[in-house]
Design brief:
The complex is a heterodimer of chains A (314) and B (534).
Chain A: H1 2-29, H2 34-39, H3 45-55, H4 61-73, E1 79-80, E2 85-86, H5 87-122, H6 127-141, H7 144-158, H8 174-208, H9 211-218, H10 223-259, H11 265-274, H12 278-306, H13 309-313
Antiparallel strand pairs in A: 1-2
Helix pairs in contact in A: 1-12, 5-6, 5-8, 5-10, 6-8, 7-8, 7-10, 8-10, 10-11, 10-12, 11-12
Chain B: H1 6-24, H2 27-32, H3 35-42, E1 46-51, H4 67-76, E2 81-83, E3 90-92, E4 95-100, E5 106-111, H5 130-143, H6 148-152, E6 154-161, E7 164-169, H7 176-179, H8 190-196, E8 210-216, E9 220-225, E10 238-243, H9 247-255, E11 261-262, H10 270-274, E12 279-284, E13 290-295, H11 305-314, H12 317-324, E14 330-332, H13 357-366, E15 374-380, H14 383-400, E16 403-409, H15 411-419, E17 425-430, H16 438-446, H17 463-473, H18 478-494, E18 498-504, E19 506-511, E20 514-515, E21 531-532
Parallel strand pairs in B: 1-10, 1-11, 15-16, 15-17
Antiparallel strand pairs in B: 2-3, 4-5, 5-7, 6-7, 8-9, 9-10, 11-19, 12-19, 13-17, 13-18, 14-18, 20-21
Helix pairs in contact in B: 11-13, 12-14, 16-17, 16-18, 17-18
Classes of the chains: A mainly alpha (314), B alpha+beta (534).
């Protein structure tokens, strides 16, 4: 077990390195000049040249890259020249907001998704299964940007029940805090929810078709024990999907946060891209990669614990 | 997934339909909104203003200052002189008066003696004196990245006593006062800048009508009124500037009552917001803005003046403008200065030829291109520019058999081609931030020195125009300068450099409970004049 974890950790180092390198060069190859982004279209050529010089954009990409890697190895994500603050500080400021959104969305997805998946699997080809299938189909194929806008329009503008932007504060009461969260959570949880339902349904059907399960049923085991074996064997696949979905919820956060003006990582990254804040873009991408790698690793470990058999498959 | 039951699919379709109907069928509820929510925003004189930019730094010298970010900074800091809100004429601010020497080289500013800084970590709200002006301008000279020539031209800044500051210029420059009205030139206290370091960007200390309460990066900034302000003390207790980059979110937040003012509104929402009787929309061409098409005057077929004149005559500009701005968010103009500028003289509009496709054909034939030719049009990819390109393409094809190849890209890629002077024709728009002074536009479009920047990407060069522009910088009298700018425009337009077809409007909206919110042509607003009904 410890060996597997160690192996996975070692494997993630080259992944991170490749991601850092690609992000670094892609941001610089893009035909976009941070000096123009900062000074605007009306700036004169001399003004631009002076700014580039003062910000070190004139150095070769390679030497900028070496500097950046050297900083990273010392745990320094760099300094944002737009915000004039350390990148790690900026990320730390908004990270709790994104975690609230992503983890909250996942909790909803799991709490609703697993029961719905079981319901569909145990009523295979009957109306509950059809209804769940249609809903998941809608969930998977709805663009979340569109969904967010429609929800805001219905519940915020037309009905006036819920706020459509920003994050509430606990100082103004629990309702203020919660009400700001409902629409973003509903939006961000849609795709993970649909995926959890699909995978739960299919892995349970998978288990139900296995010989050991048929044997248990044939022996007339109590329903409680049958259900335990069914879940135990289906869970590793579900947990893996939850890991991947949590990571994709972080990506979905970019759109959800933009629609609901939610101050999180996604909005920070999107703003950094539009203002050509290279170090901040790099920092955000690197950070999201690390989260992705860690979350998947944790998912693997939990899957191993639940059913050690599955460790052999990976 | 497995085979689908057609009945269930129909059910799903019905569900979707029901959702849409829900969305469109609830106008009555909308008119009342949620009373609890509304009261929360208006009580206690707090006002929430949605602005489309994120404010990253509140340091006046923060180099990311955007139009709306600049407005936030402008509430916290004062400048030596300011612009009259309506007319953009220079008026006193921290300097109650000033003298300019006859040779235009020495500016003596007499400061107010009743100005105090906000209380901060490193000073307790002390009086602002001449040394602060000297310190601020030295810092500006060190850090300012725009208008280098104008800032560099200020050779020395000296405090002759506590309330007198003398600027010495290297050469006379009538734009100096206009340049220092920008919010970047706000006066800052040395102790706070040096004591706080980078922290000054989030807890700034100035002398303005509002002081900082809280900045939440990429989210909002809350300002509270400065009771000790030397000018009009604000009516509202606090102003929250909420940063909303997305047009949809801005309109939704205004309609749901979460913000009281949308300082910028997407054109597609004008009619929607107008329908709501609780909201007021302002859609006005009074904004410093010029949208233009420039032709290459150095190489290619358009180097021939007859070809340029023919192209201008072949464009039905009125039809083009109404096609581009379908929600009425743009207004037809004629001259290379914004309609709101004091340099815009309607008597010069006749210099722009009328739509005359037959005359255009004859001119083109005279120039030897009766069968037409190909033109490469470069634009930066905004919706308005893309629509303009397609309309132009069709009109030139129909009227002159000119084939226009559209190259639409982001600003940086566009700028590379245009500054190199290789674009046959290009479309762009400009909003110089320095008040409505026509100089910045005419200098940008027509000065030989501006070749190599996008405003003069067509390569316009005329000795007489250069001389007149130079003369205008030595003239401080506005009427005389206006006369010079009229001459410049007359000469320039006779060369048919392109068309200055529209002024994109200023569009903003607010709840009817808000009083006194106005945005001026330079996209500046002053929150101390705003009040909110309780």
């Amino acid at each position: 077990m410890a060996k597997t974890i160690f192996k996975r950790l070692v494997h993630s180092i080259p992944i991170l390195f490749v991601v850092v390198t690609i992000t670094f060069f892609v941001t610089r190859i893009l035909p976009s000049d941070p000096a123009v982004a900062i000074l605007g279209a009306e700036a004169t050529p001399e003004d631009l040249a002076q700014l580039r010089e003062s910000m070190g954009f004139n150095e070769s990409y390679f030497s900028q890259y070496i500097d950046y890697i050297a900083g990273l190895l010392q745990g320094n994500l760099g300094h944002s020249y737009v915000h004039k603050q350390p990148v790690s500080q900026l990320i730390a400021n908004v990270l709790p907001n994104t975690i609230t959104l992503a983890v909250g969305g996942m909790i909803i997805a799991v709490l609703l998704g697993i029961p719905l998946g079981i319901l569909a699997a145990t009523h295979r080809n009957k109306s509950p299964d059809h209804a769940v299938s249609v809903l998941t189909l809608c969930g998977v194929s709805t663009p979340i940007f569109w969904l967010g806008l429609i929800l805001a329009l219905i519940f915020g503008v037309k009905l006036g029940w819920l706020p459509v932007m920003g994050r509430g504060s606990l100082e103004q009461g629990a309702w203020d805090y919660l009400s700001h969260m409902i629409l973003p959570l509903a939006t961000i949880s849609t795709v993970p929810l649909a995926n959890v339902v699909i995978i739960t349904r299919s892995s349970i059907i998978d288990v139900v078709n296995k010989d050991f399960y048929k044997t248990l049923v044939a022996y007339g085991m109590p329903k409680r024990i049958i259900r335990k074996h069914m879940l135990k064997n289906a869970l590793p696949a579900i947990i893996n999907v939850i890991g991947i979905q949590l990571a994709s919820a972080l990506t979905g956060a970019i759109l959800t946060e933009t629609v609901f003006n939610w101050p999180g990582m996604g909005k920070l990254a999107a703003d950094a891209i539009t203002s050509r804040d290279y170090t901040l873009v790099q920092g955000c991408v690197l950070f999201m990669t690390i989260v992705y790698v860690i979350v998947n690793l944790i998912a693997d470990i939990i899957a191993c614990c639940v059913n050690p058999q599955s460790a052999k498959d990976t | 997934m497995k085979k689908k039951n057609p009945f269930m699919l129909m059910l799903a379709a019905l569900l979707c339909l029901a959702m849409c109907l829900c969305a469109c069928n609830n106008t009555e509820e909308n008119a009342t909104g949620d009373p609890g929510d509304m009261e929360q925003t208006v009580s206690g004189g707090d006002i929430v203003v949605g602005i489309p930019d994120s404010v990253k730094s509140l340091d006046p010298m923060g180099q990311n200052t955007t139009v709306y970010g600049g407005n936030v900074v402008g509430q916290i800091f004062d400048t030596l002189v300011a612009n009259n809100f309506e007319t953009t004429e220079i008026i006193p601010c921290l300097a109650e008066s000033w003298d300019i020497s006859d040779d235009g080289l020495t500016y003596t500013f007499h400061l107010r003696d009743d100005v105090y800084f906000h209380e901060g970590q490193f000073q307790d709200g002390r009086q602002m004196v001449a040394d602060d002006v000297v310190y601020s301008f030295q810092r500006i000279k060190e850090l300012f990245a725009r208008n280098n020539s104008q800032v560099d031209n200020i050779a020395t800044i000296e405090a002759t006593d506590d309330f007198t500051v003398v600027f010495t210029l290297t050469k006379a420059d009538s734009q100096t006062l206009a340049v220092i009205t920008q919010e970047n030139f706000g006066i800052v206290p040395k102790e706070e800048i040096e004591g706080q370091g980078d922290g000054f960007a989030s807890t700034p200390i100035g002398t303005g009508p509002f002081k900082i309460k809280e900045l939440s990066a990429d989210n909002y900034v809350i300002l509270e009124k400065n009771e000790k302000y030397w000018g009009t003390v604000p009516s509202v207790d606090t102003v929250t500037f909420q940063f909303i980059n997305d047009n949809n979110t801005m309109a939704n937040a205004l309609r749901s009552g979460e913000i009281d003012v949308a300082a910028s509104l997407g054109a597609e929402f004008i009619s929607l917001v107008e329908e709501d009787e609780n909201l007021t929309v302002v859609n006005t061409p009074m904004r410093q803005h010029v949208a233009l098409l420039h032709m290459n005057m150095v190489e290619g077929p358009t180097a021939d003046i007859r070809v340029r004149e023919a192209i201008i005559k072949a464009i039905d500009i009125d039809a083009m403008v109404s096609g581009i701005y379908q929600n009425g968010e743009g207004t037809r103009t004629y001259l290379p200065v914004p309609k709101a500028s004091w340099g815009y003289d309607e008597s010069l509009e006749s210099l722009v030829p009328d739509y005359d496709p037959e005359g255009a054909k004859a001119l083109l034939a005279e120039a030897g291109y009766e069968d037409g030719f190909e033109l490469n049009l470069y634009i930066s990819a905004t919706d308005a520019r893309n629509r303009m390109a397609v309309i132009l393409q069709q009109q030139l094809k129909d009227n002159l058999n000119i084939t226009v190849n559209i190259h639409s890209s982001d600003w940086a890629a566009f700028s590379e081609v245009v500054t190199a002077g290789t674009a046959d024709i290009y479309g762009a728009s400009y909003a110089f931030s320095e008040s409505g002074d026509p100089y910045f536009y005419l200098n940008g479009f027509f000065n030989t020195n501006s070749i190599g920047s996008t405003p003069n990407g067509g390569g316009f060069s005329n000795g007489e125009v250069d001389a007149l522009l130079d003369e205008s910088t030595h003239t401080t009298d506005q009427d005389q300068r206006n006369e010079l700018y009229k001459q410049i425009m007359t000469i320039a337009l006779s060369q048919y450099p392109g068309i200055y077809y529209a002024n994109e409007n200023l569009i903003y909206a607010y709840h009817n409970s808000v009083e006194g919110f106005r945005i001026n042509p330079s996209t500046i607003f002053r929150m101390e004049e705003v009040s909110i009904a309780q």
